[in-house]
Design brief:
flat, single chain, 336 residues, 8-stranded antiparallel β-sheet, mainly beta, 6-stranded antiparallel β-sheet
């Protein structure tokens, strides 16, 4: 009986020892099997590559600067050869001092007072460079002399009242007067008679320039404009042509009609004879009158055009009536 009990106890202790041993031993886990690599399929592009817009640049990229492409515009005609300019640094005081070296010039605004006389002023009205009297570059200038109280001796010594033409040259490093011509004898003050050089022309293409001069006179509210073409004939300046080219009577009173005439003057060889003709294209605008008989410049009655052509006649320009388009006749006038 005792032997049976002791055998059962030993069996129980053996089972306990086995259980404790099993709990104390480390658990052996199998090593993980490495995963098979995942194959990423290659996608081939079927669409053409896109070009990035220069205004949408991805972050981190710098736009490539593009070279500007400029298409040159071909000139219509070659530019003319510039004539050498020698008088750009010569001012009005130098011109007047060369003309009258013994006078005192005091600048007052844009004119010069002469010899401290409050009634005597001079100024340079216009100037242009060219070849007028000799084969060298010269300066043509129109001088205005407003001296109504000069004595006859002073007028002979200096200049008569009005405007005159002077030609200047540079000789021996200085400014000298080559010619002085009194082209505009008039009883009007130079303030009311404006004479200006419009351009240096060469109508006969001989290399020598002629002077196209425009004068504007105002009297009793009526302004008239005339053109003159002068040429040096080795002794004096002679007129080759003159004609009225403008009129404005809208500043006058008691006029039967009110109008403004303006013209454009061109020199061109029309018939191919080597001599330029003078073309005067004029436009006349007629105005209605208001209840007081004054011009109403806001109401045009008519706008008409004309063309006058002058050809070289051997000694002067003469009208070419065959190629002249006269001013059309105005049929009726509007009442106020």
């Amino acid at each position: 009986m005792k032997r049976t009990v002791r055998a059962a106890q030993w069996t129980m202790w053996a089972m306990v020892v086995c259980v404790l041993a099993a709990c104390a031993a480390p658990t052996l886990r199998p090593a993980p099997t490495p995963a098979s690599p995942i194959a990423i399929p290659t996608v081939q592009a079927t669409a053409p590559a896109r070009t990035l817009s220069p205004t949408l640049v991805p972050r981190g990229l710098s736009p490539t600067p593009r070279k500007a492409i400029l298409t040159p515009i071909p000139p219509v005609a070659p530019l003319p050869t510039a004539r050498p300019r020698q008088f750009d640094d010569v001012d009005a005081r130098a011109l007047l001092a060369a003309l009258f070296p013994d006078v005192k010039l005091t600048p007052v605004d844009d004119v010069f007072r002469v010899n401290d006389d409050p009634t005597w002023t001079m100024w340079v009205n216009a100037r242009v460079e060219g070849q007028f009297t000799q084969d060298t570059v010269e300066l043509a200038a129109i001088i205005a002399n407003d001296a109504p109280h000069l004595s006859a001796e002073q007028a002979r010594r200096y200049a008569p009242w009005g405007s005159f033409l002077a030609i200047f040259q540079t000789r021996n490093g200085g400014l000298q007067v080559a010619q002085r011509a009194f082209l505009f004898p008039t009883a009007m003050s130079p303030l009311a008679f404006d004479a200006r050089i419009d351009r240096a022309a060469d109508f006969d293409h001989d290399g020598q320039n002629e002077l196209l001069i425009i004068t504007t006179a105002t009297r009793l509210g009526i302004t008239t404009t005339a053109a003159f073409l002068y040429m040096w004939n080795d002794q004096a300046f002679v007129p080759l042509w003159s004609a009225p080219v403008g009129e404005d009577n809208t500043g006058a009173l008691n006029q039967a009609e009110y109008f403004v005439v303006a013209s454009e003057i061109r020199l061109a060889d029309i018939n191919g004879d080597g001599m330029d003709e003078i073309l005067v294209d004029g436009t006349r605008v007629d105005y209605a009158m208001d209840a007081l008989g004054l011009p109403d410049t806001d109401r045009e009655i008519a706008r008409r055009s004309e063309r006058r052509l002058y050809r070289w006649g051997g000694a002067a320009f003469v009208p070419d009536n065959a190629r002249t388009t006269p001013l059309p006749t105005l049929a009726t006038r509007s009442s106020p």
